[in-house]
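Entry, Tuesday afternoon. Goal for today is a structural model of the target with adenosine-5'-diphosphate bound, before we commit to ordering more compound. Inputs were pasted exactly as handed over by J.K., no edits. I checked the ligand SMILES twice against the vendor sheet because last time a stereocentre got dropped in transcription.
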Amino acid sequence: MLAALPTLKLRLSAIIVAAVAVTVGTFYLTLKALKWWPGVCGLLAAGTALLVVWVMSRGTLEPLRDITAASEAIARGEFETRVVATSRDEIGRLASSFNSMAAELAQTDRVRRDLVANVSHELRTPLTSLQAKLENIADGIEQADAETVAVMLSQTERLGRLVKQLLDLSRLEAGTVPLDRREFELRPMLELAARESQLGVASTHIEVAVEPRDLTVDGDAERLHQVVANLVENAQRYSPAGSTIAVGARRVGGAVCIEVADDGPGIAVGETDLVFERFYRSDSARSSRDGGAGLGLSIARWIVDLHGGSIRPEARLPHGCRMVVTLPGVGS
Ligand SMILES: Nc1ncnc2c1ncn2[C@@H]1O[C@H](COP(=O)(O)OP(=O)(O)O)[C@@H](O)[C@H]1O
Ligand SMILES: [Mg+2]
């Protein structure tokens, strides 16, 4: 019955009123009707009042005991523990926010476990293949010829890249490296990123177009360079040989848009959000041998978010992907 009262204050008031009524009633009854000695009547009245308070407060305090037990369970790592939140008062609200906190912790714990599993998997694959090659060489089954060494080198490069990306991502997420923001010209940065990406990748051609030519943006040049390098790397990886990758920047309203467009298969509509998740790769990317770990776009999104901007893929016709990074313009 007390559970129907909407606030703790009302419940406590109800308990006090009931206790006082019972005390007065008992005292009056024993003193007047039964003519007991006043000391005994007083003791009896106090006893009944205590009993009433004890019985009535049980329902109110029980959920607090549940919450205490549940927090101890969560402290032990049992993140699936929940409490039953039935009342509408402060304790009921405490119980339901406790449940949301527990759900949040459970989700964080799941993400952490997935991360560890993914990281271990990604590190193990190149390590296993390296180890197999080295064992073959040690046993004399394979020669340490130029081709074998090149394969091993590419595996160690992949490991190095992965470790660097993981470090980057954890630094970005922890916010330990603040942005070094200043106004800078986009064209030299985009051209440098294009030139660097072009090195060693002869199969595609990169074109840079910036309008107006002296377009500037307020941001961390180093970090934005990393975003563009990641986007261009994807464009190179997923677009057909002989195609052209268009890197561009322009002003749109008060904002600045940086785009990287390719003629590859594009990103399916259902995957436009998923591709930014850590370790997410589409099935086709997963099955290709030279695929990355699925961290590039997560890093790009963190950097763009830190700038207060947004990043999204758009489809191109007849096929292809256009990654659009929108950054707040200078002074906006
Ligand atoms: N330009 C693109 N064209 C088609 N798919 C892309 C493109 N860029 C990214 N993707 C998809 O998004 C996924 C995640 O990209 P990313 O985080 O850079 O990881 P990675 O490049 O290591 O696979 C890729 O595996 C791929 O499926
Ligand atoms: Mg990538």
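The two ends are 58 Å apart (CA to CA).
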